[in-house]
Amino acid sequence: VCLLQQLQASYSFYTWPSAPILAWFLWEHRSELPGKHIVELGAGTSLPGILAAKCGATVTLTESAVLPKSLEHVRHCCDANGLSPSQVRVVGLSWGLFLTTTFNLGCIDLIIGSDCFYDPSVFEDIIVTVAFLLDYNPEARFLTVYQERSADWSIEHLLDKWGLRCERLPIDDLGRESGTDIRELMRLPTNFKREMAESFDTDIAEMFALAAEHLSTVVSTLSSDQLLQLYGLYKQATLGTCRTTKPSWYELEAKQKWDAWNKLGAMGKEEAMASYVALVNQLSPGWEGMSDRPAANGWVAVSCLARQDSHLDESQKDIFDRVKEGDISKVRQYASEETNRIDVRDSEGMGLIHWAADRGNVDMVICLLELKSDINMLDSGGQTALHYASACGHTDVVRVLLERGADASILCDEGCQPIDVASEDDIRVLLRSVSI
């Protein structure tokens, strides 16, 4: 098996020590693999899944639906091993969410995952996904290998909560028949450890995510200047140096946000994270004990991830809340007032049409287009509504956008077209049809 790795990249671009263990376990049971359908969660460099495919299994490799570069890396790993579409397919999946891609996985014999349980904030999302798949495939099993990083981390209560049972499989004898020392497979090269330590400060990243989540609970107590300062630091921490076009002079709110971000210049992402955490500490002392779950971040950061909207009174709802709820009458009422603009962006840099596409609400998308919303409007990351609908598997929305003239060739800031992030084969077919 040939693996492509990038040591100074995101978690999914190099092989964690649990992957060789799982791969070796599958190798020792290779006679049982032909004809089986195996789904790998959080595939990354896909060592176990690729080995299973080479041993005769039909394999579906899954990675985060909001990480197009990770999905593309999985495809490169498959190509490097000469695997055909009949042997393996690559699918974007969102843990904890039951989108079209989850239902389209088909009948499954075995679910595998190596080192999926590395971040306590997603433990339950993984368990929920596994429980759902096992419920639909009662004869299937979930086989996982993971590294214990803290005695405080446990999935036992989650297994009980979702009606699952687990059995610990010993690995002491693994590799003995072939004379392989399995412990050698678990050792990372020294330069790997050094590269990993230098590339990412896990502690500050976790604190940054917690601080960002806590901020949403105290935002009403902060001044505009404080919010703008936090906005700039957040953008710098997540996207780096501001490279977006300066808004027009009459877009006062957008211009203020742009200025807050742009003035940070070439400040490093980790420095911005640290400054953000320090400012939250200053504005809300003692907040650390109030939050226990990091916010979800990534490409199309809100899309396909943040689905649980907090309850708001009618008087508190803005136009974005109306779009998320699918309240077409309120949206039309909003647009009927001359002072209101339909192509506004929220604090995340998303427009109304992005939210409608994210939610898969075809009627709302059509409504916004009838109200002259820009079909190719870009969010803060250069993504269009077509990017969102493609990534989230909303085929009907993709079809409507293409029929109404959406540009499928637009590259986002990550250098991806909608087809590069598409999570469904039928969506890719639609997108290819307009590029021919």
List the helices and strands and how they pair.
Blueprint: H1 18-28, E1 37-40, H2 47-54, E2 58-64, H3 68-80, E3 88-93, H4 100-103, E4 110-114, H5 123-136, E5 141-145, H6 156-161, H7 182-185, H8 190-199, H9 202-218, H10 224-239, H11 252-262, H12 269-283, H13 319-325, H14 328-336, H15 352-359, H16 362-370, H17 385-392, H18 395-403, H19 418-421, H20 425-435
Parallel strand pairs: 1-2, 1-4, 2-3, 4-5
Helix pairs in contact: 1-2, 9-12, 10-11, 10-12, 13-15, 15-16, 15-17, 17-18, 18-20
Q: What is the domain total for the residues? A: 3
Q: Based on DSSP secondary structure assignment, what is the total number of beta strands?
A: 5
| Multimerization status | single chain
Helix count equals 20
Structural class: alpha/beta
Order of strands, main sheet, comes to 3-2-1-4-5
Form type: globular
The major beta sheet can be summarized as: 5 strands, parallel
Task: Write the CATH fold name of the largest domain.
Answer: Rossmann fold
Q: Radius of gyration from the CA trace?
A: 23 Å
Q: How are helices and strands ordered from N to C?
A: HEHEHEHEHEHHHHHHHHHHHHHHH
Strand content: 5-15%
Q: Distance between termini?
A: 35 Å
For CATH, the homologous superfamily of the largest domain is named as Vaccinia Virus protein VP39
Proportion in helices? 40-55%
Low-confidence stretches: 188-202, 291-311
Indicate the CATH architecture of the largest domain: 3-Layer(aba) Sandwich
